[in-house]
Design a protein that fits this description.
Layout: H1 8-14, H2 16-41, E1 47-50, H3 52-69, E2 74-77, H4 81-84, E3 93-98, H5 104-115, E4 119-124, H6 130-134, E5 137-140, H7 153-172, H8 178-189, H9 191-212, E6 218-223, H10 228-242, E7 246-250, E8 266-271, H11 278-290, E9 294-299, E10 309-312, H12 320-338
Parallel strand pairs: 1-2, 1-3, 3-4, 4-5, 6-7, 6-8, 8-9, 9-10
């Protein structure tokens, strides 16, 4: 019997393992096809464009593609794309992402790319959307309808497609050898199980912690490397659902000014991984604690740090953005409830920005 939930947001978070699996299974051959189409037209440059959550998913693609292939793809907000990419640009490739496929800024960015004779690749959750019709090649997420305002399950399905695409392209470019390629695909293919495990093991702890820190009036989310985009996305979820200031930063960049805002009423979420030096985290944690700030540490294994709460979500580094995403989404959901808000319907926001 399917469990009923009070809000769409938490129900959609709980659907993430299922939709991640479904999206990857339906896209394996499609991602290979699109990767080959991109490679045939690739001349050393590639643009990435989207807005909000979709842009953050593209930042994860940008990082992994650069790490695996040594090839840099330029990420530009969709609203800025026509202003940043001049008319004199030689033909290139643009990868555009929009959950609805109807975002005005993304549609306009793709139209501008079309004028410049770019090869246009889209990723959306909606068949028949403007984005799907404007692009030369299209990939779909299979998240199903997302009723809550905050993007949760659509985000993780974008990530599984984009991280797999980055892996495929790097292999086709000859930068990832066959053995590593198959190892990476196996890890990506198991991401739904890792997400399921992380949710089951941590949801109650996160709910309890959210109630304990209901008084916080600002939230910072910090991450390094592949987890920097996750920090920016996590902060967006808090802003949208909890209606308090929240910002995401690269881990040590927080020390270059923003730490001034730390107080006894602030929460800092730090996204860690054993792939990154413990010393980097310890230094930042000690400085935040000296100013009385609360800290939630999310990591792939238990670690002895002076933090207020620790969430352990076992995961290989390459899929850590996918596995950690629901941890922050769940926190944002329960913190919103603790503040007496409706996480499904922030009053000043709409699902599709026109």
């Amino acid at each position: 019997m399917q469990r009923s939930y009070e809000h769409n947001m938490i129900r959609e978070i709980m659907e993430e393992p299922t939709v991640i699996y479904k999206t990857l299974e339906k896209n394996r051959k499609e991602i290979e096809r699109v990767s080959n189409n991109i490679l045939r037209r690739f001349k050393g440059t590639m643009y990435l464009t989207g807005s909000g959550t979709s842009f953050h998913a593209l930042l994860s693609f940008q990082y992994l593609f650069f790490q695996l292939s040594g090839t840099y793809a330029t990420a530009i907000y969709a609203s800025e794309f026509p202003l940043w990419v001049p008319k004199t640009s030689p033909p290139s490739i643009v990868l555009a992402v929009s959950q609805s496929g109807e975002s005005l800024d993304v549609v306009n960015a793709v139209k501008w790319a079309d004028e410049l004779k770019f090869y246009k690749v889209g990723l959306t959750n909606r068949v028949g959307s403007q984005l799907s019709l404007l692009c030369d090649d299209i990939l779909y997420t299979y998240a199903g309808e997302e009723k809550a305002l905050a993007a949760t399950k659509t985000y993780v399905t974008q990530l599984i497609v984009l991280l797999t695409l980055a892996t495929n392209l790097s292999h086709l470019l000859g930068r990832v050898q066959n053995s590593q390629y198959h190892e990476l695909l196996e890890v990506l293919g198991n991401s739904h199980n890792k997400v399921k495990q992380a949710i089951e093991e941590n949801v109650e702890k996160i709910e309890t912690f959210a109630k304990e820190i209901s008084y916080v009036d600002r939230v910072f989310v910090l991450g390094s490397g592949l987890l920097y985009p996750s920090a920016v996305e996590g902060s967006l979820k808090v802003k949208e659902t909890c209606t308090i200031p929240s910002e995401g930063f690269a881990l040590r960049e927080f020390l270059h000014g923003p730490i001034q805002l730390t107080s006894e009423k602030s929460l800092t979420i730090i996204l860690g991984h054993s792939n990154i030096s413990e010393k980097l985290y310890a230094d930042v944690i000690n400085k935040i604690k000296n100013f009385g700030g609360k800290i939630l540490f999310v990591n792939d294994r238990p670690i002895d740090f002076n933090v207020d709460e620790q969430i352990v979500a076992e995961t290989p580094y390459i899929i850590s953005p996918i596995v950690y995403a629901p941890m922050i989404q769940i926190l944002a959901y329960y913190l919103s409830l603790a503040k007496g808000l409706n996480p499904d319907s922030p009053e000043k926001l709409s699902k599709v920005v026109k």
